[in-house]
Amino acid sequence: MLPKPLLKTLTEAGVGSRRRLADAIRNGRVRVNGVVAEDFRQPIDLRKDSILVNGVLVNLKPQKSVYLLLNKPKGCLSTTSDDRGRMTVLDILPSKYRSLRLYPVGRLDKNTTGLLLLTNDGELTYRLTHPKFECEKEYLFYINSILKANEKMRLQQGVKLEDGKTSPARVRRIASSPPFNYSITIREGKKRQVRLMLAHLGHRVLALKRIREGDLILGDLQERKVRELNPKEVRILMNSCSDG
Fold this sequence. Notes:
The protein is an alpha+beta fold. The protein has helices at residues 6-12, 18-26, 122-129, 149-157, 193-200, 231-240; strands spanning 4-5, 30-32, 35-36, 43-44, 51-53, 56-57, 67-72, 103-104, 113-119, 137-142, 160-161, 164-165, 170-173, 182-186, 207-213, 216-217, 226-228. It has three domains: 4-57, RNA-binding S4 domain (Structural Genomics Hypothetical 15.5 Kd Protein In mrcA-pckA Intergenic Region, Chain A, Roll); 67-130 and 217-240, Pseudouridine synthase I, catalytic domain, N-terminal subdomain (Alpha-Beta Plaits); 136-213, Alpha-Beta Plaits, CATH 3.30.70. A hairpin with a 2-residue loop joins strand 11 (160-161) and strand 12. The protein is globular and about 65 Å long.
């Protein structure tokens, strides 16, 4: 069995997202055979080596990759735990999934509903969340007003927020999914990005729902319901967020 790079080993073990694990290595929170790891590419022998992340031994035995599509309800946190006892996405998963070390791919804020992926596949998480892949995300939103032509143009050209200018968005008026009256497609995942973009133009978003990520569509999955992706959907999703 050929050695694997440390970061790839950890992501495949389902310990967390690639980004989070990279931070753990940088911050000296990963030990290989008792020694603090300093190189993402450090070769790991799955038969002999032991790895601790935050003092917890990592199970290097290959596990089945699981991909869940959840229609997140309003008021639910896109995290696996909360020290204030609030409802998280793990709380609404069927019990058979709760011990599989699944984690959300990106986040939806507490009051945003819709498509949220959960998986133990670090590579897919990396592709869906890293800015270089520019994975599209489509949202429906409701505002109690009408976007003017110049406002739509500003969204399409990019809006300057506190952490920089957003990439160009696609915006269109809709009437087929009440109460939502607009669709917006973005290629970033800044915190509360859609709400902040609209707020910058003086519009308060009253309802927000994600309906697509890459080529994966939420469809008619009801709120609080979850289903597993089939292999074809996983391949399509991976290919739709490729850097070419």
